[in-house]
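User: Predict the structure for this protein chain, please.
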Amino acid sequence: MRRLLFTGLALAAGTLLLSLAAGELLTRPARARIGPPPAGLQAEVVHMAYGDGRQVSGWFLPGRAGEGAVLLLHGVRGNRLQMLARARWLQQEGIASLLVDLPSHGESSGDRITFGRREALGAQAALAWLRQHSPGEKIGAIGVSLGGAALLFADRQPELDALVLESVYPTITDAVQDRLAMRLGGAGVWVAPLLLMQIPLRLEFGVQDLRPIAAMPGVRAPLLVASGTEDLHTRWPETEQLFAAAPEPKALWAVQGAAHVDLHDYDTAAYRARLLPWLQSHLRKPPG
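Assistant: Here is the predicted structure, written as structure tokens:
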């Protein structure tokens, strides 16, 4: 009996220590040296201030007058390079774009990854810069996973003329449980509270502050929600719930067979065929 008790205590202590280590890794900044734009890329290096003396770094790719401009926001532990293929494509179509490193990613400032909440400050700064430097243009945004959550939490997202959300989690509870279920099966439900309880300790706000779905009713821009049907990080029923919470006008795109991957890379031709006419319909100025 004593041996069983000691074994149980050891397992509990081990699980707690592993969850603490996982919490540290999940919120640790993902900084990287990006350097100058690739050779031959028509791009401007930009830096935008946010918060208390912090900055967001990125590249601006100009387009043609009247075609609009798009803010591109990457996923968790990524950086602007994740969105470079989209930016090149948009520029070829005449659409300007601003791709940035979200706070605590790439070359941008930040102490912790906060799953969209403080990254929203970087998104707000980038949107303000893009609007200032694209006078007269309609403004859109594409946010992938973390980037989409940051857009939903940003104060300035209602000013957008078009919004694309790709593979965005509805609540942090769903996100944690889904990821643990992938690794631990049914036991993930029991481990999830050990990670969730660390959020107020590490990030100084609560689980209730990480619910992108709660921001969906406030979306005023035409909306396109996309996700993979085989995504286990954000399951398809959760994407449907996120979509259902948004007002019209809106559209839902189920990317057949895709997991939690870069949807542009997964099927580039389908991605471009789906998004280009949709973006142009909302961002392009009518002739005359």
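The radius of gyration is 20 Å.
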